[in-house]
Design a protein that fits this description.
The structure is a single chain. The protein has a single domain, classed as Alpha-Beta Barrel (TIM Barrel), CATH 3.20.20. It is 51% helix and 14% strand. The chain contains 11 helices and 8 strands. It is globular.
Length: 303
Amino acid sequence: MRIREAIETQSPTLSFEFFPPKDDIGFWDLYRTVEALKPLDPTFVSVTYGIGGSTRRKTIELVGRIQAHIGIETAAHLTCVSSTRQELAANLDKLKQQGVENLLALRGDPPQGQTVFPRTEGGFQYANELVAFIRDRHHDGFCIGAACYPEGHPECPRLDRDLDNLKRKVDAGVDFLITQLFFDNDFFFAFRDRAVAAGIGVPLIVGLMPILSVGQIKRFTEMCGATIPPPLLEKIESVEDDSEAVRHIGMYHATGQCHALIEQQVAGVHFYTLNRSTATRAIFQEIKAELPVRQQRRVRSPL
């Protein structure tokens, strides 16, 4: 099923993101991890797209296997990084042949050690160009998702300009958006209001990552521009040397975020797993168990 259709019929969608491992042992370990999620019936899983050719081939192979053999809907990432039009076209054709219908079209991060994103000769510099290319080549053959940034893209200091960039991306043919991770729901709600005011009407799936390591989450937030609320930061720093305590606080906070976001009828929740599904799986199970009750409340609330 296409993700846009799933949003219309299953909202809120619940999904996971993984990244492809570099070797065959890791590939099959991850395959089994995803296979173990089948009983949870996630709406979809997405697999990121690396810089190197071998990692990209594993992305395409992995999403195809998940789709065909596990039976979970997949979304393959595609980025502009070090890719020519010809390479992207070939990968799109392979995904189509494998029955993959969902894509996440992204610019991607600058290569390691670089601060400015370089345009690949014969390729693209911006995600809206990639989206337009996919639409031009395959029309409605794919359901296309893209990224959005509740606190603004780290390379764009002005929120209004960042929203203009997002509007161009959506207008190029995006079906849904997934947010960068955030830890304060108010950032998302303010962003959602700005997006609606700007005429961006596609569904917004929220991206969440439970904190499992203080050092790791600090590196991530520095890279992506997300803010850790001071009270939350103080809590995890106070138990930084106790990994189990950090994990407990992170899961508790992420679960609370999910409850509040679903109450406000978000289109979906997408868990960034870093290939560690234990924490996100536990949150997923709790949220999914409560969905029927919450959906009944929504129906009854106008009465």
